[in-house]
Amino acid sequence: MKILVCISKTPDTTAKIAFTDGAKKFDESGVQWIINPYDEWYALVRAIELKEKDPATIIHLITVGGADAEPIIRKALALGGDEAIRINTDSADSFSIAAQIAAVAGTEKYDLIFTGKETIDYNGASIGGMLAALIDAPYIPLATSFNIEGTTATITREIEGGEEVVTVNNPVVVSCQKGVAEQRIPNMRGIMAARTKPLKVVEPAAVEALTSIESFELPATKAGVKLISPDNVEELVRLLHEEAKAI
Amino acid sequence: MVLVYIDHQDNQIKKSTLEAVSYGAALAKQLGTEVHGLLLGSVNDDLATLGAYELKNVYQMNDAALAHFDAQVFVKTIAAAATKVGATTIVFSHNQTGKALCAGVSALLKAGLVTGAIALPNTSAGFVVKKSVFSGKAFANVSIQTAVKIIAISPNSYKVVGGASAAATTTPLDIAVTAGHVKITAVHKTSGEISLTEADIVVSGGRGLKGPENWGILLDLAKELGAATACSRPVGDAHWRPHHEHVGQTGVQVAPNLYIAIGISGAIQHLAGVNRSKTIVVINKDPEAPFFKAADYGIVGDAFEVLPKLTDAIKKMKASA
């Protein structure tokens, strides 16, 4: 079995969100970069677990980005995976990223393609769906569990107000979220091994972006909290009813 | 033409669909065009009533292959239908179904997509849609450059505008549907619960409640308010509550009218998931809890004392109203 895990580089969850260049660019100064948590904790770890069960499994990691994405992809290799592919171009929009990955996936013929359910920076939640459509594979988004017997995958996915269990034969594209696996910490052996694992740099396919970010905005700051005495909850109810019109 | 995807579950049109229809109607007006719906499968609702939201017509496909959801099949069908009816903008709700579909349709039609949109586009120069980014910590204005455009509107971001006196027509649509590969073997509904992303009010608990056995007072309050329940990440991680209740940067992002946080300190990752809520109430016994800075109303006090009193006070208010 051959698995592709899509990896994105995102700012750390505690990073200060600020913009430069007339609010046109994300301010990267002082930002710590991490593997997008959904890609790491769920997609990558589940792929590693499948390989632990069936050592013949091959895991490829893929990312779209410049050389500055390499520390992140090495960090992912330290958790597990056999080799990494970096498509050497700046990521422009979701479609261009998905199309770049589709160009590689089209020739490599993976049985399973895992993505995180979204990245925590642009929150597009689009790569998996676009990729599946481009390679004409079934798409199971928002998975909360993933198992496979032979070539048949059994996947639980989130639906509104509950969950749905589906079966599908591979190849299949799955977007992963909480429940699929548990977060792991890379060990020293993994970190050492990652240094010598192959990291292939692939030149990009000719793909045009469909969208572009014009500018960013920060949310308006709150006017300040109105504190109410714990002995006067009736006042809170009155304010919520009359002032906020929330109840 | 603006084409709105009519999402449904258990033979009923969803509230998020009505938001998408209202959004589509306003957008059509802005662009000087008509708004139509696209329904795959069938519903018990009378489709004519969608005219109240200014929807002109619903294109309906009732092919047996569309009776069960399969993203791959639905994506191809929607893309073909949108091309056939001449849609220039396609609107989805960015709910679970929208997330399964909009990206695929975008890729097949090479139509620029903005997901998690929170407002109507600015069409004064180009077509620029505002969306939430950095998990609610900022907004981006995204320009769509393609002729056909797709917008997936974030649930609870656009008000349902009903009340028009027109009736929508229904037009059957005939498009070949390909067979799917996905088989649904079971559906588990969390019965009686209100959907977190669609809820008007969310009551959320954190570590301050000390253990799962103490959730009763929170559930009582939620029941009185008709609210959905949520929790912070540590609570989900400790399995005090099911993980689908976890709101925050790496959980569900919500934007209700009212968010009540109980015993949650307000870590930056939690705030990211809730800061688009219109009104935030924080109840915490630690006056230094960072959540108070993001709140509209706050009570510094012990949740175990405050919550039952609050539930009673709401009961009284409802009785006197």
Quick overview:
The complex is a heterodimer of chains A (247) and B (321). Chain A is α/β, with parallel strands linked by helices and 247 residues long.
What does this structure look like?
The complex is a heterodimer of chains A (247) and B (321). Chain A has 247 residues and is an alpha/beta fold. Chain A is 29% helix and 31% strand. Chain A has six helices and 15 strands. Chain A has helices at 37-53, 70-79, 94-108, 127-135, 188-196, 233-243; strands at residues 2-6, 9-11, 19-20, 25-26, 33-35, 58-64, 83-87, 112-116, 139-149, 152-159, 162-169, 172-176, 199-202, 211-217, 226-227. The radius of gyration of chain A is 21 Å and the shape is globular. The termini of chain A are far apart. Chain B is an alpha/beta fold. Chain B folds into two domains: 2-172, Rossmann fold, CATH 3.40.50.620; 201-320, 3-Layer(aba) Sandwich (Rossmann fold), CATH 3.40.50. Chain B has seven helices and 17 strands. In chain B, strand 15, helix 6 (268-274) and strand 16 (279-284) form a beta-alpha-beta unit. The chains are: A alpha/beta (247), B alpha/beta (321). Chains A and B meet through helix 3, helix 4, strand 9, strand 10 and strand 11 of A and helix 2, helix 3, strand 7, strand 8 and strand 9 of B. Strand 15 (226-227) of chain A pairs parallel with strand 17 (297-300) of chain B.
SSE pattern of chain A, N- to C-terminal: EEEEEHEHEHEHEEEEHEEEH
Q: Rounded to an integer, what's the Rg of chain B over CA atoms?
A: 21 Å
Share of helical residues of chain A? 25-40%
Label the structural class of chain B: alpha/beta
Largest sheet of chain A: 9 strands, mixed
Overall mean confidence score, pLDDT of chain B: 95
The overall strand count of chain A is 15
The tally of structural domains of chain B comes to 2
Please give the number of β-strands of chain B. Answer: 17
- Binned, the helix content of chain B reads 25-40%
Task: Kindly report the average pLDDT value of chain A.
Answer: 96
Largest beta-sheet characterization of chain B? 7 strands, parallel
Question: Strand order of the main beta sheet of chain A, please?
Answer: 11-10-9-12-8-1-6-7-13
Low-confidence stretches of chain B: none
SS-derived structural category of chain A: alpha/beta
What's the architecture of chain A in CATH terms? 3-Layer(aba) Sandwich
